[in-house]
Specification:
429 residues, alpha/beta, Rossmann fold, 7-stranded parallel β-sheet, 5-stranded parallel β-sheet, 17 helices, 14 strands, 43% helix
């Protein structure tokens, strides 16, 4: 398929896809408070004066919180290496925008990335006149790539995401996608086995850089540290209780994992961190119906019920600190949903890991962890209980965490390697 035909098809379908997705997007923004931010920037409407924008800056494009955290990691490393460099971080969601602004990095302009309609992209590029654009993981848009190329703006892809599912989809449509992806100047891949896919998408071999994953780079990630206030809250549930953290859970997982934790050890405290804090009422109700006395982090009070306790962390930005207090960590979105969540934080905190069967978004890391004995697999409530029981054994926990750190160590230095690759000149295909 020619690039011109592929672009025509894309531009014809884009308004249809937007109209289909729009109602769900509005509901999500209402739940997450997006309408209280500068959300109009998503459609190219800005209220501050253009003359005060950082023209000629390096732009990072992320989607939500996970990608934004990686972008911030690169911004900090780049700024430390080249003081005075100006940066703009454009996010695609309200949660990503809030996370970026909360980081309070001096001189960083946080905005929303434009929807991929031609006039919105042109308005964005005309306003900011970026020196270059660096996309994070998978935020690749045809109109943005094409218009940036016409304006002579280099576009790179950092920490290219390649789950088995997305790789199959990209390879299936490679002929239609090649005219767009080939416009990327550099692609940073976490694993060597991803190289063939990007070559099939039209990237010259010399422009594909095996850097390791920004998510798993221990050199640029602080070890999660305990929080004294959190320790006091946990102590209120009783002394000498093991704390088992269920991290970034999705609907249905909370009650199943809480039951499994108590089955493994009746004295254990299930500490539940839903992926989306706005689900607090839904999570609390599900746990209550399952027989738990629920305490919310946002409305903490001394637990008094004699029923089995469950502690729900319904505040954002605290997962790392709660991980530091855990005796074992179960990764959510891997049992009753698909894709999984990032296990690196728990590994860096040296906590024994329990993984569900649906961790596709974090392959091949998860495969290596399981092959090397750096994590315990589970697939249902009974097997989670067995895994928790094993993870709470001190000798087993020490063995798991040591092996997990060895697996993660191959990504050490990924941030440095990203900067080296992104600062190289493009090699012509």
């Amino acid at each position: 398929m020619t690039g011109h035909l592929a672009l025509l098809i894309y531009r014809a379908l884009l308004p249809v896809l937007f109209l289909i997705a729009f109602p769900g997007w509005v509901l999500k923004m209402l739940r997450r408070g997006g309408f209280g931010t500068a959300l109009s920037e998503r459609i190219g409407i800005y209220f501050n004066e253009a003359e005060f924008e950082p023209s000629g800056a390096i732009h990072f494009h992320s989607i939500s919180v996970g990608e934004t955290a990686l972008a911030l990691k690169l911004v900090k490393a780049w700024a430390a290496e080249s003081p005075g460099t100006r940066f703009v971080l454009a996010t695609g969601t309200a949660t990503g925008h809030h996370f970026a602004t909360s980081a309070a990095i001096p001189g960083l302009r946080v905005t929303y990335s434009p929807l991929d309609f031609q006039w919105m992209v042109r308005r964005y590029l005309g306003r900011f006149e970026p020196e270059r654009i660096i996309l994070i993981e998978g935020d690749v848009w045809p109109n943005l790539l094409r218009i940036a190329e016409k304006r002579g703006i280099r576009v790179d892809l950092a920490n290219a995401r390649n789950s088995p599912r997305s790789a199959r989809r990209l390879m299936k449509f490679a002929p239609a996608l090649r005219p767009f992806f080939s416009k990327l100047s550099a692609v940073c891949i976490p694993e060597e086995e991803h190289r063939a896919l990007w070559q099939a998408l039209g990237i010259a071999p010399e422009n594909i850089h095996r850097t390791g994953s920004l998510k798993f780079d221990a050199e640029s990630a602080p070890t999660p540290a305990p929080n004294p206030a959190f320790a006091e809250m946990l102590a209120a549930f009783g002394n000498n209780r093991p704390f088992v953290l269920a991290a970034s859970t999705f609907p249905g997982e909370e009650e199943m994992l809480a039951r499994a934790i108590l089955e493994a050890d009746p004295n254990a405290l299930p500490v539940i961190v839903p992926r989306h804090a706005e689900r607090r009422s839904e999570v609390a109700q599900a746990l209550s119906l399952a027989g738990f006395a629920v305490t919310l982090r946002s409305a903490f009070s001394q637990p008094t019920s004699s029923s089995p306790q469950a502690f729900v962390i319904d505040t954002t930005g605290e997962l790392a600190a709660w991980t530091a207090h855990a005796d074992a960590v179960i990764i959510g979105k891997s049992f009753l949903s698909t894709g999984g969540q990032n296990p690196a934080e728990a590994i860096l905190a040296r906590k024994p890991l329990i993984l569900g069967p649906h961790m596709d978004n974090f392959q091949p890391l998860v495969r290596h962890l399981l092959e090397k004995g750096g994590a315990l697999p589970a697939h249902d409530e009974a097997s989670v209980a067995l895994a928790v029981r094993a993870a709470l054994d001190p000798q087993c926990a020490a063995d798991l965490t040591e092996k997990a750190m060895c697996v993660l160590s191959v990504h050490n230095g990924a941030t440095r390697r990203h900067l080296s690759a992104l600062q190289q000149e493009r090699t012509s295909a």
